[in-house]
Amino acid sequence: MKRGTMSGGSSQAPVSALRASAYRIPTDAPEADGTFAWDATTLVVVEADAGGHTGIGYTYSDACIVALIQGALAACVLNHDVLDVRAHWQRLQRQVRNLGRAGLAATAISAIDCALWDLKAKLLGVPLIALLGALRSAVPVYGSGGFTTYTNQRLHEQFAGWVAHDGCRWVKMKIGSEPDKDPARVAAAHAAIGDVAGLFVDANGAFTAQQALYYAQRFAEHHVSWFEEPVSSDDEAGLRDVRGHAPAGMEIAAGEYGYTLDDFRHLLAGGCVDVLQADASRCGGITGFLQAAALCDAYHVPLSAHCAPALHLHVACAAPRLRHQEWFHDHARIEAMLFDGAPRLHDGQMKPDLSRPGCGLQFRHGDAARYLIK
């Protein structure tokens, strides 16, 4: 592969520009989970320039972070050497000390960090995986959708398609909007996939620990093997209780709302989860995701990458104890619509294209223009 060149042959490549833009993309049908309903998804894209190249990163957040990225956070990045991504990350973390590191600030930093890693790899003329160190050449995924707004017929079609056509070994559905209906919905989902694939459920924190344990017993009748956020991720005692009393063979998962390393440490040290989730679009980008992966390795706990499959592809290949990646319906659809190089599924896996530098993605500005939030 031809290697890129850096400006003037210098060992430094200062970031010359940082841009952010937000896009509101309608869903293809009304969607809901146990605690929220939505009809559109907001994508925030960050572009960073250096040495004649442009790196891209993104997050699924609110459009309000565009001003934060182009204002206070840009000062931490502009005119600094892009090759030292971790130094950028430390400056960004310090910059939001008085704003709060979690939530919106964390998603903004995540998008910037991903753009800088992509830019660094493009400057060096290599795929991002070459910088991160590959532990695997492909990443298994689980199909994720099954929204509580879906009819059982729509649920059946989605899950059967992921298993029969795309080769997914697991599928996940949302529960909790109308709990009394969930056992029948779970039965319908199991009928769609049989024993060919594993069945996951996600309550998005809708239940108390007592309710979660009641439904866990009902779901076990239909071979559910994964119960995600049975209670709020903030309820460490509740997660620990559910994990300690869940049916044999049913794993408890949480962590998608981890924004800092301490968020993950609390879940792991507290014995709250069988599998930790981390989301590079929320937890500090590639840098933060690698930190979460190292923490999982230290605690001997599997890691699952949450949402944004195209964003995670390269870093998921580099993460120790990575079990799988969530192929979330909304995000997989948006990434295929708006990014050249977005991964496709083959035999239930996604695989990086090593012929493309960086993260392998190119944002299609023209296709995205009609969704731009002005």
UniProtKB/TrEMBL annotation:
Instruction: List, alphabetically, the PROSITE patterns matched.
Output: MR_MLE_1
The family database entries (InterPro entries) matched by this protein are listed as: Enolase-like_C_sf (IPR036849), Enolase-like_N (IPR029017), Enolase_C-like (IPR029065), Mandel_Rmase/mucon_lact_enz_CS (IPR018110), Mandelate_racemase_C (IPR013342), Mandelate_racemase_N_dom (IPR013341), RHMD-like (IPR046945)
Q: Where is the Mandelate racemase/muconate lactonizing enzyme C-terminal domain?
A: 152-249
Keywords, comma-separated and alphabetical: Magnesium, Metal-binding
Q: Which CDD domains match?
A: MR_like_3
Q: Which residues cross the membrane?
A: none
Q: Does the keyword Magnesium apply?
A: yes
Q: Which cofactor does it need?
A: Mg(2+)
Keyword Magnesium applies = yes
Q: What is this protein called?
A: Mandelate racemase
Top-down, what is the taxonomic lineage of the species of origin? Bacteria, Pseudomonadati, Pseudomonadota, Betaproteobacteria, Burkholderiales
